[in-house]
Write a structure and sequence with these properties.
single chain, alpha+beta, 5 strands
């Protein structure tokens, strides 16, 4: 009987404690507004975050520079714009120098190319001429995007909770305080969202700067073998005499003009000398006298 009575007391005490705990928990839940739970969303796709974050894919920002020698830089720039447009990208900036008597012109383009189409698109652009230099840099921003996602989710939950509290504010002072806190959190949330959109855009679209130069402006290749050295020497020899012929052609009119002026001056001087000599009196001989 004592054991039964002791067991019954323990059961009643446990039930009483459980009831008190549930009552206190219910009272506490009624006095505190729980944050609104964000709606469940599907898996993050490539178009939403720049890559497949759910599957653990790395988020890479690709930037680079490409230098290409072409016959007509302006025409190559137009063709590049068409190739980039077909790949789903666009031209961020374009600078051109028109050809003149001294140079055939040049072009500089900053293009945004979808990262998935980068290799194929660059191959098509480099096929327009002779690629001199290609450099690509990759920056992994996976951790930054994950950190931004976490901070955005926390701030969004805080904003939702403040909106609910503001709807149930009893006094003007509470309303003003909640509005100030809400404005601050919304500004921070928009700033983080803007940073995430910028990173997503850089991940999805690679930024490549392309320089189109003419053969005249192309870097000189240093000879590495006897044959290439011989060819370079012959080209230098021919180029030297070609330059000399051009110099002679340019200087010929000036040489002819200077020669004519010198001939006229010499003719005038000689004529003056002859005239002066003809007008001079003949020399006189002294009269001879007799010695006697």
């Amino acid at each position: 009987m004592r054991r039964i009575l002791f067991t019954s007391v323990l059961l009643l005490t446990g039930l009483g404690l459980a009831g008190c705990t549930g009552s206190m928990s219910g009272s506490f839940d009624e006095g505190v507004v729980s944050p609104a739970s964000p709606p469940m969303q599907g898996p993050i796709t490539d178009s939403e975050s720049g890559g497949d974050l759910q599957s653990g894919g790395e988020q890479i920002i690709v930037t680079g520079n490409v230098s290409i020698t072409v016959e007509s830089p302006i025409a190559a720039a137009d063709e590049t714009a068409r190739i980039v447009d077909q790949a789903g990208g666009h031209i961020a900036s374009r600078t051109e120098r028109a050809p003149d008597d001294r140079a055939p012109g040049s072009a500089r383009l900053v293009v945004r190319i979808p990262t998935a189409e980068l290799t194929r698109t660059l191959d098509g652009i480099k096929a327009l001429g002779d690629a001199n230099e290609t450099s690509l840099d990759e920056t992994n921003v996976s951790s930054q995007l994950k950190d931004l996602d976490a901070r955005i989710a926390a701030l969004q939950a805080s904003v939702d909770r403040l909106i609910v509290l503001m709807a149930g504010a009893d006094t003007t002072a509470d309303l003003i305080t909640i509005e100030q806190a809400l404005s601050e959190r919304q500004a921070n949330l928009e700033s983080l969202q803007a940073q995430k959109r910028s990173l997503d855009d850089q991940v999805q679209l690679s930024t490549i700067t392309i320089y189109f130069i003419s053969e005249k402006d192309a870097p000189v290749q240093q000879p590495e073998t006897f044959l290439s050295g011989l060819i370079a020497g012959w080209n230098a020899f021919v180029g030297f005499w070609a330059t000399m012929l051009v110099f002679v052609g340019v200087a010929a009119p000036w040489l002819i003009f200077v020669g004519l002026v010198a001939a006229i001056v010499l003719w005038v001087v000689r004529r003056s000398i002859r005239k002066t000599s003809s007008q001079a009196p003949p020399p006189t001989t002294p009269a001879s006298t007799d010695a006697s």
